[in-house]
Amino acid sequence: MSEGSKGSSLAFGQVVIGPPGSGKTTYCHGMQEFLGRIGRKVSVVNLDPANEAMPYQCAVDIAELITLPDVMENLKLGPNGGLIYCMEYLEANFDWLQEKLAACRGHYYLFDCPGQVELYTHHEALKNVFAQLAKWNCRLAAVHLVDSHYCTDPGKFISVLCTSLATMLHVELPHVNVLSKMDLIEQYGKLAFNLDYYTEVLDLSYLVDHLASDPFFRNYRRLNEKLVEVIEDYSLVSFVPLNVQDKESMRQVMQAVDKANGYSFGDQEHRSLEALMSAAVGADFHFASTLAVQEKYVRSQDKVLEEEVMDL
Fold it and tell me: Distance between CA atoms of 303 and 45, rounded to whole angstroms?
């Protein structure tokens, strides 16, 4: 990657962002394996200076430049201040990143980013790193992971929508919002609405009405209405459900990201993808059961209503 050179090769990739515990590292591992099986050369770049246990094959590791424990010890900073310092240090050492990425020329990049939300909603350092990558002819899409358990709590889901919108506006990249850990959603509790209500972010007034049933949130109805109006006025936020253990789910996310960053694959990759998707279904194929969770909720709710009508 040579800055500003017209003849430099075009590269593609994903910057994987999101709050702590949303599954960013697991996603990078799963996507690296999935893309590798269809013939795409993938290099994972760890930009999280606090990431010590990486399950994936790491081509570039920020730990060679700086680590969070060292910063916290030497500069007497806390975790949040230390992460900000690390990102500013990375921004000041673009030449190190450029040299490392040059060794992976021709590969598809997965950037595993830190989990501090402020880095994507307020701070400029990581945004400037992404902008510099774009100057090096790297076409990126931001993959913003959000834990699907937030869907079970209307108040938390509204806050997630606000965070996702703020991230999209601040990062200024083609954006794919992902509801991660869909295979675990049944453990979190019942959803108030159908799954597509959350993925497509449909009429949020129903969510405000649902919140009003809680005495605590009833006092903040006007505030929630205004937050919902902001989200709906921009009309930017929607989600793709993801179960990393499921091939079909991974394919849908991959296609959404490829559409966002403009990546177009060749015939060989297309044939490899068809072969992978038609392979014998193993015990790890949970996508149908994941989507069936919401159907079960709907059926159980309908049954309760039917019983109540019969009692009347």
Answer: 50
Note whether 39 and 268 are within 8 A (CB): yes
Tally the residues of the chain: 312
First to last CA, the chain: 72
- How far are the Cα atoms of 23, 215, 226 from residue 230, in angstroms, in the given order? 28, 24, 6
Widest distance between CA atoms in the chain: 76
In single-letter form, the type of residue at position 125 comes to: A
For 64, the token pair is 């060679």
What phi and psi, each to the nearest 5 degrees, are found at residue 300? -65, -35
**Cβ proximity of 71 and 82 under 8 Å:** yes
Distance of CA 241 to the CA centre of its chain: 10
* DSSP class per residue in 8-72: SPPEEEEEEE-STTS-HHHHHHHHHHHHHHTT--EEEEE--TT-----SPEEEEGGGT--HHHHH
H helical segments located in 136-286? 154-171, 185-188, 195-199, 205-212, 215-218, 221-234, 247-261, 267-277
pTM, two decimal places: 0.85
If one counts every other C-beta atom within 10 angstroms of the C-beta of residue 34, the result is 20
312 residues of the chain, pLDDT tens digit each: 544 444 458 999 999 999 999 999 999 999 999 999 999 999 999 999 999 889 999 999 999 999 999 999 999 999 999 999 999 999 999 999 999 999 999 999 999 999 999 999 999 999 999 999 999 999 999 999 999 999 988 899 999 999 999 999 999 999 999 999 998 887 877 888 888 999 999 899 998 998 888 888 888 899 999 999 999 999 999 999 999 999 999 999 999 999 999 997 666 677 778 887 777 544 444 445 455 554 555 455 555 445 554 555
Task: State the Cα–Cα distance between residues 31 and 166, nearest whole angstrom.
Answer: 26
